[in-house]
Amino acid sequence: MERLTPLFTSPSSPVPSPCLSRIVYCISTCMTSAITAEIKSRAKAAFIGLAIGDSLGAPVEFMTASEIRAEYGILQEIVGGGWLRLKPGQVTDDTEMSLCIARALAAGGGWDLKGIGDNFAAWLKSRPVDVGDTCRRGIRNYMLNGVMETPFNQWDAGNGAVMRMLPVALYTLGDDALLEKCAVEQARITHNHPFSDAACIFFGRLVHLAILGYSRNRIRRELEGLFSVSDNFRFDNYRGLATGYVVDTMQTVMHYFFRSRDFEECLVSTVNQGGDADTTGAIAGALAGAFYGMDEIPKRWIKRMDRRVIDEVSLLAEKLLTFSPLARGGLKAG
Ligand code: MN
Ligand code: MN
């Protein structure tokens, strides 16, 4: 006689129902299959790469390439020091502001601009080791007047909005239109300039493609499309300027990303250009991390980092992916 298996059994049931376990297996794989182990690794590597690039570059922030050469030869270790007198492995505003955004989104209530603003405000009050002038002005305006969008300012073409874009890219993976909306909204809390907006959007797109495993050539082709809209970011004739001007910053990152063959080479060459080295390092680290994945990040660098930061960014990267449109139901091209 055939034994009937109940469709639902309690967890304490001594005989697990094969039927139920098949249903549970199907539901769980159907819901999460879009987010593969590889995508998770790339997302995690992107956030860890951001922190590493920040920490690697910060000691040489505002130095010229030749000053760095005179002092370090080639800087390839996380040494601390610099004008901020950092501990080795300490991160700065680039990682901290990214964390502010990631924590607000990981709380799970959906896109939360006010949550991001509140986290920025709490961070500013905590006397951070470094904060850019444009960011400070925007956050204070939010704190004092509740302004979520700072008015247009011709001097707002700094890199302060794009340096904190990674969590937004993770959160919007799979939906270009959502990326665009969220990128610009978060940017304008502090920066309102078309170059800053454009950089935030196209950096987010690059991160999406890298995390989804697109080839270097495919990513390069995507950039060509973006350059046809905004020619300023072309980096074919790189002039070696790595300032905080968002156009210089993005040219530096792309120049070194496309010439290097691995994560380490990308970050070392980027930060040794000097200038806004922690920020170019952070942005390059996020992109290279997304492109190369966890296995390519030098272990000696991870060991040098503040353990709490590495643990938190790893958790947040995975969490943000689970809220992404890709996890919730597939790709949407915008
Ligand atoms: Mn910084
Ligand atoms: Mn910087």
Unreliable segments of 5+ consecutive residues: 1-18, 20-30
How would you sum up the major sheet? none
Global shape: globular
| Helix-strand category | mainly alpha
Q: Let me know the CATH homologous superfamily.
A: ADP-ribosylation/Crystallin J1
Question: Per CATH, what is the topology?
Answer: ADP-ribosylglycohydrolase fold
Helix content: 55-70%
| Integer-rounded radius of gyration | 21 Å
Number of helices: 16
Mean pLDDT: 90
Overall tally of structural domains? 1
Span between termini: 57 Å
Q: Which cofactor or ligand species appear?
A: manganese (II) ion
CATH architecture: Orthogonal Bundle
- Total count of strands: 0
CATH class category name:
Mainly Alpha
Q: What sequence of helices (H) and strands (E) makes up the elements?
A: HHHHHHHHHHHHHHHH
Strand content: under 5%
Task: Kindly describe this structure.
With 334 residues, this protein is an all-alpha fold. The chain has a single domain (33-328), classed as ADP-ribosylation/Crystallin J1 (ADP-ribosylglycohydrolase fold). It contains 16 helices and no strands. It has helices spanning 18-32, 37-57, 65-72, 93-106, 113-125, 133-145, 166-171, 176-187, 194-211, 216-229, 246-259, 263-271, 277-292, 299-304, 307-322, 325-329. Helix 4 packs across helix 5, helix 4 packs across helix 15 (307-322) and helix 12 runs antiparallel to helix 13. The relative contact order is 0.19. Residues 1-18 and 20-30 have low confidence and may be disordered. Residues 61, 276, 278-279 line the site of one manganese (II) ion. One manganese (II) ion binds next to helix 13.
